[in-house]
Amino acid sequence: MRLADLSEHSGVSLATIKYYLREGLLPPGRRINATQAEYDESHLRRLRLVRAMIQVGRIPVATVREVLAHVDDDSLGLTFRLGAALWALPHPTEPSADPEDDPSTTAAHTLVADLLARLGWRTTCEVGDLNPAHRALVAALATLDRLGYPLDTDDLLPYARTMEQAAAYDLDRMEVLPTPREQAEYAVAGAVLFEPVLLNLRRLAQAEESGRRYGL
Amino acid sequence: MRLADLSEHSGVSLATIKYYLREGLLPPGRRINATQAEYDESHLRRLRLVRAMIQVGRIPVATVREVLAHVDDDSLGLTFRLGAALWALPHPTEPSADPEDDPSTTAAHTLVADLLARLGWRTTCEVGDLNPAHRALVAALATLDRLGYPLDTDDLLPYARTMEQAAAYDLDRMEVLPTPREQAEYAVAGAVLFEPVLLNLRRLAQAEESGRRYGL
């Protein structure tokens, strides 16, 4: 399809598509003559993802470029390809930059190490705090501790098991896609777009459970 | 304890405590003479919660005041007391204000209604979109659809079941507390502080599951 068709099919304006092309967020089309290029399904898919990251995730252009570089890196095994793409995304954690060596942070490090051991999450133990989600989890637990809401391993275990189940569903759904690139794109879209769905499902589930236990 | 002790025990500065008192976020202490008042454990607990909402949740003072009014409302049954307090909090959803009647929003309404029926969540069906989490879920699903990532009921069911389990853990932990007021405070703290923990656990669980399936 031509640029105008790409715009029409995606609902993204010509000006925005040209901006994405210029910024390297969308790969160039296949040149068919001096002034025109041909675009295909992969461009449409990529355009969807870029729009999701920028418009919904409010992710800066430089970060989007970095995420996509990992998504497109055919030299990586799938775990590292998914990992690198997701690690480049912003992580949900508290805004403050807290000291690395206060007692709450030390306690949170111990807590996460203990939790991972109890869970038997061997890859996660091995990768350690190279994974920004690991660091963000430590920071979030340190904040809870610092504010007077300390948690222990038994508090966290059932939630971690719950998320283990959700992760298995995530990958089941991802594996339906035919190529590692599409799978990595899907994982990124899921991280950006699915978190609000999950959090709102949790709040609805809390209201439901409350109605069951305590009546309306 | 005196104001100075409250500051020391909580780690919150005197100036901040006085500001919270002035704004009505912290109830006044029991007057013991013309210049001094006595504070107790309930002040310490409330101070923790206010700080969590303002510093971590970045929730505006007027909203904090509204949330606390519901937390303190002894006239409400527990489901509505928890509900009202949580409903007053900001909800995780996409920033844009989308049209109410576009095809994606209509489809999302149908999807959520179908999901709730399949789940048998009767309270949630009854309360409907009075619950802002219901509206936020519809908006998040409409965005997914609009961006070219439509979901159906079978996609969502396993995640909703997972969140149902997590909600049961939430309430089990809350019920350990002795009074409805403390339970409502706990629910608010959980909504503000525990979401980053849950989302980061999810990302770690995805990495773990990926390592298991595809190797490192």
Describe the fold and architecture:
Two copies of one chain form a homodimer. Helix content of chain A is 69%, strand content 2%. In chain A, helix 3 packs across helix 10, helix 4 packs antiparallel against helix 5 and helix 6 packs across helix 8. Chain A contains ten helices and two strands. The model of chain A has no long low-confidence stretch (mean pLDDT 92). Chain A is an all-alpha fold and 216 residues long. In chain A, strand 1 and strand 2 form a beta hairpin. In chain A, 44% of the residues are buried. In chain A, strands 1-2 form a two-stranded antiparallel sheet. At the A-B interface, helix 3, helix 5, helix 7, helix 8 and helix 9 of A face helix 3, helix 5, helix 7, helix 8 and helix 9 of B.
